[in-house]
Specification:
By secondary structure, the protein is α+β, with helices and mostly antiparallel strands. Helix content is 30%, strand content 36%. A hairpin with a 3-residue loop joins β5 and β6. α1 crosses α2 (84-103). The longest helix is centred in the C-terminal third of the chain and has 20 residues, at 84-103. 27% of the residues are buried.
């Protein structure tokens, strides 16, 4: 991940720079917008998984930024039952489109890494139990 803001554009009155963290946030938001994404993963090394809390919008995203191009890696958790190739393709398109539209940078690659599958917990009939116990 690049930690230096890329020189993006020179104008008559100065330069415009976009910090890599900004691109990470854009990529993170574009990723969680896709149906079937249960959350972002910090990776195998971190071992910390955050399901759609959106507390850290760049969690699970790494970018490399050059003068005019960017490459992105996203680490996700998918919902059980979702076709992984389809969701990965949709993420790639959404991330590429969002970054290019907002920054003007050309996105050369978007790599999607699936780290886990999220299973929904079965619904518990707690309300019925309460109604039967208290009369």
């Amino acid at each position: 991940m690049s930690t230096i803001a890329a020189e993006y554009e020179r104008t008559d009155i100065g330069t415009i720079q976009i910090a890599p963290e900004v691109i990470e946030v854009i990529a993170g938001l574009a990723t969680v917008e896709v149906d079937g994404v249960a959350g972002m993963s910090g990776g195998f090394a971190g071992g910390i998984v955050e399901l759609l809390g959106r507390k850290n919008l760049s969690k699970g995203v790494k970018v490399e930024v050059g003068q005019r191009e960017a490459a992105v890696d996203v680490n996700i958790i998918v919902e059980y039952g979702i076709r992984i190739p389809e969701i990965a393709s949709e993420i790639q398109l959404n991330v590429k489109r969002s970054i290019e539209m907002m920054t003007g940078l050309h996105v050369v690659e978007v790599n999607v890494h699936i780290h886990d599958v999220h299973f929904k917990a079965p619904d518990k009939p707690e309300e019925e139990e309460i109604q039967h116990r208290v009369k």
